[in-house]
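@channel sequence for tomorrow's demo:
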Amino acid sequence: MEDFNIPADIYLVPIDNINNKEAAKIMEQSWEQFVTSGTESKFVRREILRSWLRCRESFVDPHKGFNEKLLTYNALKERYNDLHEMINVAKPMMQSLYNSVKGSGYIIMLHDQDGVLLELFGDIGMRRLAESLDVVPGATCDENIVGTTAPGISLKEKIPAQVFFKEHFCMPYHHWTCSAAPIFDPEGKLIGALNLTGLYDKVHPHTLGLVVAAAKAIERELCYRAIHKKLKKSYHYIDTLINSMSEGMISFNDRGEINHINSVCAEMLGFSIEECLGTSINKVIKNAEILTGLVVRERSIYDKKLLLRTEKGTVNVNANLKIVKDGDKNSVTYIGTFNEIGKVQRTVHNNTSLTAHYTFDDLIFVSKEMQNVIDYAHKISINGSTVLIEGESGTGKELLAQAIHNNSKRNKKPFVVVNCAALPKDLIHSELFGYEEGAFTGARKGGKPGKFELANGGTIFLDEIGDMPLEVQANMLRVLQEKQFMRVGGSENIDLDILVIAATNKQLMSEVEKGNFRLDLFYRLNIVPIKIPALQERPQDILPLAQYFLDRQCLCIGMPRAFLSPEAGKIFLSYHWPGNIRELENIITRIVNNLEGEIINIDNLPGEFLRVKSGETGLVIPLEEMERKAIIDALCHYDNNISRTAQSLGITRATLYKKIKKYQIN
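structure tokens (generated this afternoon):
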């Protein structure tokens, strides 16, 4: 072995800069001396030297190395069919790898375990050069034929390899650089190699890393498919067991797609098994949010009574929901079982519910303001005292009321909602207290229970109590004081045992001062007052709530999880949310239904989120509020002169008067 009089560190392995003329010269001299006299240089990498020695033992001509014999079409097709699964897996991986080097003069090749080229694609110039050397499907990279190449070494020694310049044993490939990695099946058997080839001046140490990563990705996918096949073998056995269950069973993924359901559950929901599989749970359970709300927060439930709205009507069930995560926690499956208690016939209007679905654990918040509210509500819920919840519309008063009920001793009893603002004036007494048969024309045979009677033993939630007509307030006060009521047309009092929770978006004391609300009824209701802060008063809760609604909505419609961009998040935080949480949920629903992709940017936000530049503050103000402020500023500037104000705003006096009235400007 001959030593060159050159420092050892000038030729790093592998050469990462072919423009290093001294290193290139050493490589050229090493190859020349090996093929002419058999001299082995210490500057040649071990794997390259081992390959050269094998080539010499096989009498490979270093000046030729062409593929002299290609496989026939039928022989190539037979190999292709034998390895169709590897090829199907490798193709998209090869395309992804090519996309990262496209336009750089590379071709990507897939070889089988014998070195036969199965697939090739890449830049046209390099492909034509390869064709000129008969590097086409059906050719081989076997060292005995084409000498030292990266795929040849990878398949021979089962290691990743990079070969470039005159490391190739045969001269026709001296202008090439190739990087290859072996591919193994799930049992560890060598089945092929992936090869990325270009001109020698394209050599880069990262190229081999890309190929190795792509080969590993192919192996992982093959392993997954092998596992899937094994699991599929036991599917029919498991399916038989599941369909023999007396309970309804359903499972769905984190996108809300049903992946299994047994015949009992399908019949319970009013569909066939085939109609359910692959569809969204939101389509077969109309109020699926009672499940998906728990799913978003990754909470299991055990023996919980739920009312499922289905194609067959409302079904009362005892439900269990189990969360199953895979090893890397990137995929989640939800398995639910339902025991039907019996079909529940609705006897109240749509604004009345017999069951409270939400607990304190379901409320989404991080702010200290809401933590104080929840802590207080949790404490008083066990006392059974009348509660008055005050807060703007959309702040979640009913959810808090349901949580109080579910934490009380009455949690197994009915929870009945009464929207005091929506009760028809001519039927308000019969709606609240019920009626006897024949009480009035059109009265139902046998009579009908009212809201208080339905809630007896449980909780009645009097929503929008501030909008209750004065003439009804007197009867309401009497019922709350005496704990008795009488049906319309009845002659006997019915004893009442209920927890009363009232809610309003008004300042009841102000309504008392205006004469719109009875003072004695206010004191009867205001035993335990709770004030829910508006959303703009607790900005820390805006983004957690937004992400919760995003997750739930994406799950309901079966789309991937979406996120707010930092810019969109800033706008959400600066918006004043006059509609509070209800508005936030509606906005998220609107955005998701029109979203393409997984990131919500400023362009995805609706019109009311138009950015108004105010210095550097970046405030976000609704258009109507902007108009109201402009009118007030103009009136102040022109000392309430209507003509000059209208002229400055570019509107008529009549229009200005209408807007003053609309915005209640004094």
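heads up for whoever presents: The domain at 1-233 is CATH 3.30.450.40 (Beta-Lactamase).
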